[in-house]
Amino acid sequence: MNAVEVSQLEKRFGAVRALAGVELLVPEGELVLVRGPNGAGKSTLLRVLAGLTRPSRGVVQVLGEDLFRASGAATRGRVGYLGPEPGLYGELSVEENLAYCARLHGRSRARVRELLAAFELAALRARRVRTLSTGYRKRTGLARALVAEPDLLLLDEPWSGLDADASALLDTQLAALRERGGSALVAAHSPEMLAAGFDATIALEAGRRTA
Amino acid sequence: MSAGPRVALAVFAKDLRLDLRSGDRLGHMAVFAAMLVALLSITLPEGTAATRAWLPALAWIVFLLTALLGLQRSFQAEVEQGAVATLVGAPCDRGWVFLGKAAANGATLIGVMLWTAVLFEIFLDVAWERAPGTLAAVGLAGALGLSGLGTLLGAMSSAARFREFLLPVLLFPLILPVLVFASHATAAALEGLPVERLLWGALGLYDWVVLLMGYFVFDYVLED
Fold it and tell me: Do A81 and B82 touch (CB under 8 A)?
C-alpha cells in the first residue's frame, strides 16, 4: 500500500498557481526528500498532505483516505506535521505542550516522557516555550509532531535552526520511523540533508515536479 | 472517552490554562469593563427612571464590548505560533475543536459577565439580587450565543489583515438578536416581572443555531 498517492494535484491561491499537476507516490516505509528552490511549492504540497489546505483540483490519498472527507478524520491523527513554525504555545512549558498534544491523540504521559528523553529535553521540561532558543523550540516542535507515533511524517525544513546534535537526533527518529514501517516526506531546499539516507528524492520547481 | 469529546476537553483545558497563565486577556478585559462602567456612572443622570430603564441594555453593551476584546485574541496563540496545524491534525471531526474553544470562551465570558454585574452594582446601583436565578439563566443563554458566534467569527477573521476591524463588523449585526432578547429579558427580571416565553425560546433557538452552525462550518474555517 502507498502512504501517499497524489494525482494531477493543483493548488491555486487566487491567480497564483502554487502546485500544477503534481503526481506523487510514496510507498509505505519510505523516506522521501522533496527538494526545490524557494517558492517551488514544497510547503504547499506538505500542507495539502497534512489536511491544512484543500487542493483546488486533483486526487490526494493519504494512508488510503481522503483527509478532506468526514471519513478522513481518524486518519488525520496518523499524520504528523511540522511546518516552518514549531506549532507550540509560548506560555505553556515544553512538557505541557507535549502533554496537550498527547491528550488530543489519546496518548499517555509515558509517550511524553519518551519524547522528552529522545530529544534531550528532559532538563527543560518545565521551561516555558517562549523562553527557549530557536533550536530547542524546533526540537520541541519535532517531538510534538511525533507524539501520536504517526504513520506518515511531514516535515518542512526540519533542519533549519538545528545544531549537529539535534540533527543527529532527528536522523535517529527518521530511521526509527522507517524501521516500524512509517513513511516521511521531508522538504528541504539544500541538498546537504541527504545524509539522513532517503529512499527517494523528488524535485519541484514553480509548482511542477521536475524529477 | 471517544476522540471528539476528548479533543474538546483538551482544547478547553488548554485555552483556560493559557488565559489564567498569561493573564493579559483577562486583565485587559477587567480594566476595560471597569473604565466603561465608571464613565457611565459619571455621565448618566443619577436615579432617574430613564436611567434605570436604560441600565439592562447598557449592561449588555458593556459586556459585548468587553467580550470583543477577548474574542479578538481567542485565536492569537494558534495563528502566531503555527499551532493551527495541531488543531487541524486532531483525530476527530473539527466541530469538536470548535466546541472546546467555544466552551473556553464561554467560561471566560461568564467571568467577564460576573465582573460586569459587580461593577454595575457598585457604580450604578443595579439590584441583581431581585431575581438571581432568572438573571443567571438569561446571562448564561446570552454568553452561550456570544461565545459560539464569537469563536466562529474569531477563527474566520484571525488570519485576516484587518482582523481588529473585521470581527466587530461581522459580530455586531449578527449578535444583535441576542442583545435585544437578553436586554428585554434582563429588564423584565429586574422589574420583578416574568420573562416572556418567546424571549426564552428566541435565546435558546439562537444558541442552538449558532452552535450547530459552528460545529459544521468549522471544518472549512480551519483550512487555508
Answer: no
How far out from the chain centre does Cα B15 lie? Answer: 15
Phi and psi at residue A92, to the nearest 5°: -100, 155
Q: Determine whether the interchain pair A92/B81 forms a contact, defined as Cβ–Cβ distance below 8 Å.
A: no
Q: Chain A contacts of B104, Cβ < 8 Å?
A: none
CA B181 – CA A201 distance, rounded (Å): 61
Q: Select the residue of B9, B89, B223 nearest A81 (Cβ to Cβ).
A: B89
Here the ipTM equals 0.89
> What is the distance between the alpha carbons of residues A65 and A76, in angstroms, rounded to a whole number?
9
Whether the CB of B3 is below 8 Å from some CB of chain A: the reply is yes
Q: How far is B30 from chain A (nearest CA, A)?
A: 20
Contact B21 A83 (CB under 8 A): no
| Global confidence as pTM | 0.91
Q: What are the E-state strand segments in chain A?
A: 2-13, 16-27, 31-35, 57-62, 79-82, 152-156, 183-188, 200-205, 208-209
| Yes or no, beta carbons of B3 and A77 under 8 Å apart | yes
Distance CA A204, CA A210 (A): 6
Question: By 3-state DSSP, what share of chain B in percent is helix, strand and coil, each rounded to 5?
Answer: 85, 0, 15
To the nearest whole Å, the CA of A77 is away from the closest chain B CA by 4
Residue found under cell 503555527: B82
List the single residue in A51, A86, A90 with the smallest CB-CB distance to B88.
A51
Residue B137: is it exposed, middle or buried by C-beta count within 10 angstroms (0-12/13-18/19+)?
A: middle
Q: How far is Cα B5 from Cα B14, in angstroms, rounded to an integer?
A: 14
pLDDT digits (tens, 9 = 90+) for B147-180: 999 999 999 888 777 777 889 999 999 999 999 9
What is the per-residue pLDDT across B7-51, written as a single tens digit (0 to 9) for each? 999 999 999 999 888 878 889 999 999 999 999 999 999 878 888
